[in-house]
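hey can u check if this looks right to u? its 152 residues, i copy pasted from the old doc so theres a chance i mangled smth
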Amino acid sequence: MPDKYNQFRAMFSITRASLKATFRSPSAVAFGFGFPLVFILVFGFVGGNGGFSVDVGLDKNVDTTSPAYIAVKNISVLNFIDKPDTVLNEDLAKGNITAIISINKNSKDTLTKYFVHLKTSNAVNQQNVRPAKCFKCGANAAGLDYPQTNKG
């Protein structure tokens, strides 16, 4: 009595025959497996580390011992530029830096201990402002308030 038709066995037979035919031809092996592997390696090494960072300035009136400063300083996406305030404002107006961050202590007795403000300009690419705002969630989790972005 013949065996009952089985979909899995039919698929396995077709796959086996296709692989046999592919491995019998050296050019099919080279272009089917080697060529894509070389492309993956070449384009993988060309991309670099794939990291993204945003240049920001820090207001000079920030208390560097506060937990708010430490929380913002530990964000790996933000690259802090240390220049005088006048140069930072010029760079911001030219679009050379994305934002100026100021951290102010809250004088009222509330749960929010610090206010974190971003000052940006219209010269800045707005796609770069989004990563600078990324610390909003981290700042809120650390008990900081992130009220708004000021455009200057």
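Residues 26-46 form the longest helix (21 residues).
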